[in-house]
Write a structure and sequence with these properties.
Transcription Regulator spoIIAA, 3 helices, 123 residues, 6-stranded mixed sheet, single chain, alpha/beta, 32% strand
């Protein structure tokens, strides 16, 4: 299975889904013009990866901001990965970003998988 790497833009996050290491990274801002179109390939990739995952899979999220349609896609990703043995989420947020911390807590309560909230000074 090939890995996916997409450079960050002003409207889309950097994507680095590595099938060899099991580290799946999303970082930046997610306000794409067409959220479904942008994330379609990523959802497909995660579904395929979930068929033959590595013993440990970590979805690392360092999102500064995302729109409502992205929040729906993130929940879809979490639901897929929650069925993968050894999968977990590392949700990074800036220490002064109370909203992003709360969103992380909300997601953690919605899914049944290890979900770490990690406060950092700055991304």
């Amino acid at each position: 299975m090939d890995s996916i790497f997409i450079e960050q833009t002003s409207k889309t996050p950097k994507v680095d889904f590595n099938s060899q290491t099991g580290f799946l990274h999303l970082e930046g801002i997610s306000i794409p013009e067409d959220t479904v179109d942008f994330y379609r390939t990523l959802i497909y990739w995660i579904n395929e990866y979930a068929l033959n995952p590595l013993p440990e899979t970590i979805l690392v999220l360092k999102l500064e901001y995302f729109n409502t349609s992205t929040s729906v896609v993130l929940l879809d990703m979490f639901k897929i990965l929650s069925k993968v043995t050894g999968a977990k989420v590392d949700w990074y947020y800036e220490s002064d970003d109370v909203e992003m911390e709360e969103v992380g807590k909300d997601y953690a309560n919605m899914i049944d998988m290890p979900f770490r909230l990690i406060s950092v000074d700055v991304f």
